[in-house]
Amino acid sequence: METQLFLTMMTAAIITMLATGLGAVPFYFVPKLSPKWSRRGYALAGGVMLSASVFDLIFPAIRRSGYPPALIGLLLGTLFFIASEYLMSDQEFQIGDIRGRSARRILLVLGTLFIHSFPEGMAVGVGYGAEGSGTEQLGLLLAIAISLQNIPEGLAVALPLRAEGVSVNRCVLFAIASSLPQPLAAAPAFFAVTLFQQLLPYALTFAAGAMGFLVFTELIPEGICGGDRTEIGSAIAFGFLLMMALHLWF
To answer: Measuring CA to CA, how many Å separate 240 from each of 40, 138, 156?
Structure first.
């Protein structure tokens, strides 16, 4: 019975990972982004990620364990991103034909969403592992909710990549790769439910701290640079509300 439940859980976790790739699908029907739409894209991605950090990471952590673990996780996540920025500042990065600051920004986006995927995978594993204790269908509901939320997060990955001219196929692959930790983290969480339940609030807010810092230091400034502030503010608000609206159903 446990083996069957584990296989079901891993299937659900893999589906949540693949759902992230759907966020890049619209770019099969959209030509190369102009500089104006690139700025809007960065702002939209910032709004999506900011909303995800609040509603999918910080609030659940506070509901689980209160404010102290949330504050610790946020602080550690912020310090981690500051350290990453410092270590990467003098390095020269290249992704395909993209170099310099643009390549560095893309790596930060991918790295931050990669970190963000660990607690989501943990949540799926804990949800399925806890089903034996009477929380029926919890894992399935979590997997469905995370899959739906991963679609706009995949869009947040694809937008800066597409803005720099990365092919749509590679955007899809990068989006899926950013969620690779979900099935990887789900497996140990399934077998060590109690331990991972205790770690989850810290993991959630650690990711939120890194993500929030990325939004305010990279994505929003990039959107505002040379753009109309009203348009950029509207794109941020739309991205934020898009992710928020998903919580009306899940």
So the answer is: 13, 26, 11
| Residue whose pair of structure tokens reads 């509207």 in the numeric block | 234
**Residue tagged 């969403």 (tokens):** 113
Q: Measured on CA atoms in the order 207, 208, 213, 215, is the torsion positive or negative?
A: positive
One-letter amino acid identity for 11? Answer: T
Considering all CA atoms of the chain, what is the largest pairwise distance in Å, rounded to the nearest integer? 59
Give the bridge partners for 99, in sequence order.
94
Mind listing the pLDDT tens digit for each residue in 12-39?
A: 999 999 999 999 999 999 877 788 888 8
Q: Does the pLDDT value for residue 59 go beyond 80? A: yes
- Helix 193-214 × helix 181-191 angle, to 10°: 150
Position 12, amino acid? A
Rounded (to 5) percent helix, strand, coil in the chain: 85, 0, 15
The pair phi, psi for residue 128, each rounded to 5°, is -70, -40
**Helix, strand, or coil here: 97?**
coil
| β-strand partners of 98 | 95
Contact 23, 213 (CB under 8 A): no
pTM above 0.85, yes or no: yes
